[in-house]
Structures are given as structure tokens and as C-alpha cells.
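S1.2 Input.
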Amino acid sequence: MVLCFDIGNTKTACALYDNSVLYEVFDYPTCETITASKLIYKLSICSDPLNTKKIEGMAFSSVVTQKNKEYMDFAGELNLKKVVKIDPNCKLNVPIHYNLSKLGSDRIANIEEAYAIYGKNVIVVDIGTAITFDIIKDGIFIGGLILPGLHSAFESLNRDTDAIGDVKFDIPDAIIGNNTGDCIKSGIYFGWIAMIEGLFEKIKLSYKQDFTLVLTGGLSQILSPGISVPHIVNQMLTLNGIYRIFLNN
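S1.3 Output.
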């Protein structure tokens, strides 16, 4: 069995694989410290109790560098035989034309899995604390875009605009709001949908070819119904990519 962690800015997702079959998946706040006892407890909530001695390996992607030592210590606590930290030094199947020292480990996992599953021309949009676009063209990762996420926009407005008050994010009922709170919700929700659609079309036009659009990340299912261009939602893309890289290293 292999543990895979996707350590994000806000939350961490954990998946347990058994001979390439997903055994269990759950998430928790990134600020929470992970230990063997906590892992056993979380797994016992999700499924049958698990003997941690069956876990032989671990891989993790982290955009929160101060958590890395904690997870390496956790691997030592479990006496794991193999540990893979996702970074540019990992063996990858997708060729990369990018400054590797600046490429986030979650994006590495995304493009590796997308290349394996969806082919040579793919745009991956990861919708989380930030929104990232990663473009695979003719089988090569050529780069992408990074934008603020929905919650970041809400937090910025609530923090910097005193007169607005504290607006909570939810899906608006209509595109046109008739009060300030609904206007903010509509502006951000439909604005981010239009941004994703517009950037996707601009990228296609720029390269004069079509791409498969893949959405992942915590908010992908919230935005997906409003996106009119054909697309695929794969919320396991990052974790499956982490596991794929583990197997290849």
C-alpha cells in the first residue's frame, strides 16, 4: 500500500492506493499536524481499521515548504521503505520546457497524469486557492498561467473594502445581482467562469489547434456546471499523478 498526500495552501488531500487501486481518500486542514495515530483514526472513520504495517511507501506534493520536514518525519515514524517527494528531480514521462526550479509540485503531478490519460494536447485548470492553467502542446509541457482563486478574491474584497461587509461565497441565483452582496457573488462566480472560457479560447486561437480541457481542484465541481465549453472534471488528477510519479521513481 502507498500513501499519497497533496499538501495545498488551505487543505491537504490524502489517498491510499493498494496495487494501483484507490483504497481510500480524505482531506483535512493543512495546518493540522499528521501523525501515525491520526492517520489510523482518519482511516478508521472512512473504512475498516488498517494495519499501518501494510503501508510500504509514500509520496507527497507540497506547496507549503514548511510542512515538508513534518511529512518526512511522519514517513520515518511509519518506517516506510520508499518515500518520493514530488519535485523537478523526479523522473517524468512528459517533456518539460519550463524553468523547473519555479514549477510547483502539484502542477508537476497534474501535467504528468494529464499527459498519461488525456494525450498530447491538454489544458489543465486547477481551481483552488489559486487558479493555474497548465498547457501540454504536442506532448510537451510549455507553461501556463496563474491567477487568484475565488476565495482569495472574496477575502480581498472583505478585507480591503469596509463598506461592503462580510460576504460569504455561494453560487448566485442569477447573473445580475440586486444588492451589493449578490453583485459580488455574481461578479466573481460568473467572472471566473468567463475567464476560464475566455483564456481557453485564446490559447486555442494562439496555437491554432484544439485542446482537451480538464478541470481539477476543490472548486472545479462548483464552476463546472456554468462552463459552456466541453470539458472533463477530474478531482483525483493531482493525487493520481502523485501516485503515478511514485511508481516511476
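S1.4 Remarks. The longest helix spans residues 180-207.
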